[in-house]
C-alpha cells in the first residue's frame, strides 16, 4: 500500500468528523485567511496520487503525500511532490469554462505556484518550510 493509499484510508475512516475550514498550501491561503469553509466529503487514492473531494465539488489532488494528521481538530499533509486545488467559480454553473486551479510543484526546497484565475492577479507565495496542505 502506498503512502497516498494509507492517507486516503485514514481520512475515509475519520469521515464525517474530519476538520473543516480554510485551505492553505505551503503557507499560501486559498482566498483570504479564514474567509471560506471547505468540508471533506470523500477521499481516494490511486498509486501515488491522493484525491480529496469537498462539499462544493472541489477536488484536492496531492502527488506523493508524506506525513500528516487527520482528525476533527487537524487536517495536515506535511509534504508532497505536487498539490493541485480545483474548484468551479462559486455561484456560476459547474462547467469546464468555470473550472479554476491553483497548482503547486515542489523541487527541493522551492515550491512553484501556477493558477488559471483570470479575474484578479493571484499573489501565490508558497513557502517550502510550511506544510503542503492544511485546513485551518
Give a written overview of the molecule.
The protein is mainly beta and 136 residues long. The chain has one domain. 9% of the residues lie in helices and 43% in strands. It has one helix at 3-14; strands spanning 23-25, 28-29, 40-46, 49-54, 59-63, 66-70, 75-79, 82-88, 99-107, 110-115, 133-135. The strands form two sheets. The protein has a six-stranded antiparallel beta sheet with strand order 3-4-5-8-9-10, with helices on one face. Strands 2-1-11-7-6 form a five-stranded antiparallel beta sheet, covered by helices on one side. It is globular and about 40 Å long. The mean pLDDT is 95.
Topology:
Blueprint: H1 3-14, E1 23-25, E2 28-29, E3 40-46, E4 49-54, E5 59-63, E6 66-70, E7 75-79, E8 82-88, E9 99-107, E10 110-115, E11 133-135
Antiparallel strand pairs: 1-2, 1-11, 3-4, 4-5, 5-8, 6-7, 7-11, 8-9, 9-10
Name a few traits of the molecule.
136 residues; mainly beta; six-stranded antiparallel beta sheet; 1 helix
Short description:
The protein is mostly beta strands and 136 residues long.
Major sheet characteristics: 6 strands, antiparallel
Distance between the termini: 28 Å
Task: Label the overall shape.
Answer: globular
Q: Estimate the mean pLDDT confidence.
A: 95
Assembly annotation: single chain
Q: So how many helices? A: 1
The share of residues in helices is under 10%
Amino acid at each position: 500500500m502506498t503512502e497516498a493509499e494509507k492517507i486516503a484510508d485514514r481520512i475515509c475512516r475519520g469521515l464525517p468528523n474530519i476538520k473543516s475550514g480554510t485551505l492553505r498550501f505551503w503557507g499560501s491561503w486559498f482566498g483570504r485567511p479564514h474567509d471560506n469553509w471547505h468540508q471533506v466529503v470523500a477521499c481516494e487514492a490511486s498509486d501515488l496520487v491522493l484525491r480529496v473531494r469537498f462539499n462544493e465539488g472541489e477536488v484536492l489532488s496531492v502527488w506523493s503525500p508524506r506525513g500528516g494528521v487527520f482528525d476533527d481538530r487537524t487536517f495536515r499533509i506535511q509534504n508532497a511532490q505536487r498539490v493541485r486545488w480545483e474548484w468551479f467559480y462559486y455561484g456560476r454553473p459547474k462547467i469546464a469554462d468555470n473550472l479554476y486551479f491553483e497548482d503547486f510543484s515542489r523541487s527541493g526546497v522551492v515550491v512553484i505556484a501556477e493558477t488559471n484565475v483570470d479575474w484578479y492577479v493571484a499573489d501565490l507565495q508558497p513557502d517550502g518550510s510550511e506544510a503542503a496542505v492544511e485546513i485551518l
